[in-house]
Amino acid sequence: MLTNLQARDVATVLHPYSNLATLPSQGTLILERGQGVYVHDVEGKPYIEGMAGLWCNALGHGVEELVEAAAEQMRKLPFAHLFTGKSHDPAIALAEKLKELAPMKAAKVFFTSSGSEANDTQMKLVWYVNNALGRPQKKKIISRIKAYHGVTIASASLTGLPNNHIDFDLPLSSVRHAGCPHHWRFGHEGETEAEFSARLAAELDAQIEAEGPETVAAFIAEPVMGAGGVIVPPEGYFAAIQPILEKHDVMLISDEVICGFGRLGEWFGATKLGMKPDTVSVAKALTSSYIPLGAVIIPDWIDEALVAQSAKIGVFGHGFTYSGHPVAAAVGLKTLEIYERINILGHVTDITPHFQKRLKALGDHPGRRSPRSRACGAVEVVADKAAKRAFDPKTAVAAKVVAFAQDEGLIVRAIGDAVAVCPPLVITEAEIDELFDRLGRALDRGEEWVRKERSR
Ligand code: PMP
Q: What number does the ligand 1 atom closest to the CA of 117 have?
């Protein structure tokens, strides 16, 4: 039985990323307020936000300084743009800060409002710059199966998940997908992580050769894959991939939309995993999600190509109304200031072993596994662990676990058979314990449900 608000919701709001057929009967969880790692629904029930919203609310709720930064900027100059020779201080200061933090020698920053727009911009820059450099055939971009890079036409093409392609007439013809670095699922019998990494690199090499290296422009990768199921790459993965890209003059785009700003204990996931990106995309934790903001950070050689092209043809014809929105930029600057002041990287480094220990304990169980994690991870429910047999997708066990978790006062997310956990970075050890106690109970209830279903 839906509440009045739920009924109004499902009657009017077209919900992103939802099963539109079942949502009207299931109803929606309607949230009202938040404090720290907790959110409260309209009935007043508290939940631990085990997903930091959508992997983004790094500082948790109720950070007054961010509210103040937004209010102050709104009072002073609520809108100004960066088109046609205009600028403003928040965008300049934030671009300087991002350049300073970037995991490579950065030249400039292009602002967007989301991760999808950032990756869309990446793809347009790859095409534009290769035209500018006089190699118009070098246009293909290789992403990976199970990657998540967004939902615009370009970024959804880069995403390597079936639901983002089927019936949307995607991916675009210039996008390819390479193998997914999920050792447990795709590793061969007896293959070590290092051997698996070497095989994936050899397969990528063969794929680029088959396409023709002169047609392949870029490889895009999240350091740790997030929405594809929290997949931490196997040992030596990027060290094996990187030389292949260099050999074929294929640039590396690091999609830091989830991993950027501390998720792996460094400013950028690329640094943690030894990637040497040419460019990066950021969003989400850049403002701790208090306001939409994304960015693409580019190196000198791309900047120079863009400038040279403008010298020839005039205007660089790309930009959003909200590119560098002053309120978003002010909140972004304040967020980065807070990260530095509270030493968020140190905090994440301190709590990660405890997070990993609790997550691993949940996976040490016959019907589950918890692959390697960082300050985000997943517990996967499996029908037969030894045989690596997954449940029939129709069983939707992980979705059931997520529903039980909600009942227990915990928000987590089902991705196939995996239950993803990605709490605010500021979470304490005591809150991590509470989170995993609740998740443990939800998993037990999920397994009890499976047993009952099977015996029916
Ligand atoms: N890249 C990655 C790695 C992401 O996780 C996401 C969002 N989950 C995106 C891009 C797209 O970002 P947005 O939803 O802000 O468009």
A: 16
